[in-house]
Design brief:
- The chain is mainly beta.
- It is built from no helices and 11 strands.
- The chain has strands at about 5, 10-15, 20-25, 35-40, 45-50, 60, 70-75, 80-85, 90-100, 110, 115-120.
- The strands form 2 sheets. Strands 2, 4, 5, 6, 9, 10 and 11 form a 7-stranded mixed β-sheet that branches.
- The chain is globular, with a radius of gyration of 13 Å.
Length: about 120
């Protein structure tokens, strides 16, 4: 089992920044690829960004490319999502997830989510 706890969400004005953190426990963190997902009201959950186990490979959704940065600190068992130039469209509950390759995120572990609200 892997336990994931997100933090850092909140209310911010458009153009502002937030940094989300996700602390992991329970298993060897560096064995897991990590991802951030989000779900806005009335919409399906969508992928925001992922990072490889070593941190060497990252992927971003087109909607956040150039504004968000995913990173991880394996010594601290934590993954981060730095969000800059926030837009009202970024308002959602943000979830971190862990997967043990080759398993999928759907079959992995999920946190409880943290709310991000961007006001115009």
């Amino acid at each position: 089992q892997v336990q994931l706890v997100e933090s850092g969400g909140g209310l911010v004005q458009a153009g502002g920044s937030l940094r989300l953190s996700c602390a992991a426990s329970g298993r060897t963190f560096s064995n897991y690829a990590m991802g951030w997902f989000r779900q806005a009201p009335g919409k399906e959950r969508e992928l925001v960004a992922t990072i490889a186990r070593s941190g060497s490979g990252t992927f971003y959704a087109d909607s956040v490319q150039g504004r968000f940065t995913i990173s991880r600190d394996n010594a601290k068992n934590t993954v981060y999502l730095q969000m800059n130039s926030l837009k009202p469209a970024d308002t959602a509950v943000y979830y971190c997830a862990a997967r043990f390759p080759p398993n999928t995120y759907q079959n992995g572990y999920w946190g409880q989510g943290t709310q991000v609200t961007v006001s115009s």
